[in-house]
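pls ignore typos typing on phone
adenosine-5'-diphosphate + seq
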Amino acid sequence: MKKFRARLTLIFIILIGSSVLTAGIFMARMLQQSYIESLTASMERELRVIKATTDWRQSGSEPELFRFYSDRAAMLRASADARLTFIRSDGKVLGDSDHDPALMENHLEREEIRDASASKLYGSAIRYSSTVQRNLLYVAVPLLEGENVTGYLRMAMSLEDVEGSIRQVWFVLTGMLLAVFVIAGLISYRVAYSVTRPIELITSVARQITDMNYKYRVQVNKRDEIGQLGHAINRMADSLELQMNRISEDENRLKSVLESMTSGVIMIDREGKIALLNRSAEEILGFSAKELLGKSFNQAKQQYEFTQLIQECIDVRDHIRDEVIFYYPKERILEINLNPIAEAGGEWEGLLIVLHDITAVRRLERMRSEFVANVSHELKTPIAAVKGFAETLLAGALNDKETARSFLQIIFDESERLNRLIGDILELSKIESKRIPLQFSPVHLEPFIGNCVHVMNTEAKKKGIELELNVDGDFYMEADEDRLRQILINLLSNGISYTPEGGRVRLKVEQLVSGKEVTEHDKVRFTIADTGIGIPKKDLPRIFERFYRVDKARSRSSGGTGLGLSIVKHLVELHKGTIRVESEVGVGTKFIIEMPLIHN
Ligand code: ADP
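k done
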């Protein structure tokens, strides 16, 4: 643009300069010509006056004539202030005001003489005189006698004055020319600036748009083509900005959808490079997007089976669904969906992979089927006993009263157990499905605990076990009273069952309050400790599982179902509490429950 402006300015200067120069030259020529013309006219006039007033002498010897005319010439020179020459019709110089005529050559061929002889009026010429070393204007008039030319009278004047004034004109002209150049330069720069400036602005805005900077606009206040171009550029920038905003909005939306998805999403381009990876995918693969983006998919070497699936999908270009177990960075079962992405033109664009963590689903399914198997097994044992003893009775044992009685007792016990088992299973399923919401109410702990312990007293007495109660302070807690009772009775009953005769079971209740005001962060701690057989370390993590028993035979003999602790744990969790166990074989077991004092 700068170049264009300079060129435009130069063109302007050249145009203006050359026209001023042409005008100057023309003027100088005109001036010179009219000056010379008027000078010629006045010289001619003078010559005619001289011609008329001169007394022409034709006779005499040549030296006489020379002297005569030279004297005349010298005399006239003084009054006319010009060189005068008398020339005979044959060209011989007879007299000259400035030179010796005897030494001068024939003048017949001089331009002014030839002119004068031809026109019979006058002749003129401009010539450089080597004698005076300057340009001279010569004017000659013929001396006529009838039709015959008898001689010529010539006057010569220096053109110094003319040339001086012409030079002056040139001097002024050059000065003017320079001034015109400067002014023209300035004006043409302004003009060029006003022409190129809007183009420059438009170019810079266009450049900004190319650099994806859409907030710049052209300031247009012209209505010409440049103004229209500016408007067009502005409208283009508006629409581009709008489109870019829309695109980035869509992109953000898509990004937030992708990032908040729990499924992993991976996109692989046509070259087999990873083009996109959301946060869940990073977590599942155990690599950050930074490490994987732009890399080939088979870089994920830890997941050999996964990369094989991708290769297969690339080969067959069809949807593939499979379940794969990942061991790195964490063991999990993944459902993998691979879909080739087809472009509108039918071209293959890449691969979209969706990873779905189904570990929990599969574990739940496994637990459910295990539970069904366990339940069936647990139900089968008492039913088999009932059936077996009833058969034996029917086969004749009925007659032996003693035996019959003991058999019936077993049948009764087993059906009792069956009843309890079914009751517990139903209870557990009710709690697990959260069909019955908790009924929270303030529970006055001291009398409530006293009541629970009282219920267990008979059983404890039967085994000669001492039941100890310790409530630290008189306070209330918010809980579902029936559920809380169920929890405590279950644990006390376990304590009594798994403690040999003469042992001790203790229930301790404390309030864990940090500040003066009671908040939902404050807790109640129940500790149920016994001096029983204890639980081996290896079994500790599993005792809250359904049907899990450390010693099956012992549990059976104590009438246990293996569901008690599982129910307890669920109920504690429904109260937003925690339960943990500490135990040492042969020394005793301690269950510690912590529950919030109040609920919001
Ligand atoms: P069960 O009806 O068999 O008692 P629970 O779910 O109540 O079932 O208990 C699971 C298992 O945990 C029991 O079979 C027993 O082996 C062990 N257990 C529970 N409480 C105690 C305890 N206080 N002392 C020793 N072992 C216990």
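The first strand starts at residue 83 and ends at 88. The mean pLDDT is 87. more later
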